[in-house]
Design brief:
This protein folds into 2 domains: 2-51, no CATH class; 63-120. 54% of the residues lie in helices and 23% in strands. The longest helix is centred in the middle third of the chain and has 35 residues, at 54-88. By secondary structure, it is of the alpha+beta class. It has helices spanning 23-28, 48-51, 54-88, 101-120, and strands at residues 2-9, 14-18, 32-38, 45-47, 92-94, 99-100. The protein has 4 helices and 6 strands.
Length: 121
Amino acid sequence: MLKYALITNKKTGACMVGLGTNIKYYKKIGMTELDVTKSEVDGIWYLTEKLQTEEYINALNEKIKAEKTETLKKELEELDRKRIRALCEPELKNTDEGITWLEYYNNQAIKIRSELKNLTT
């Protein structure tokens, strides 16, 4: 997207970006209208052309993978609390099928662990 920006690192393409509407001020401090994008990896503004590298795409994929892993771990922790309660209160979740809450939570945990294993391998 076109924004008034000043390149702060020519090698990486990192920029300072003017986010307001005071164009006269931005021009006064040396900013020019450049095609910039805010990085999803580190939140810094870069020249758009610098963000379309294989290195950036790999870093973005790693960040997404790490976030998904963290989400799955939190889901497992929540399930562990529910499973402990299900041990203490052995009730049926579904009386027609005879499935207890513990069996239900165990099955969910197995699915999440499988997903987590696929992410880490």
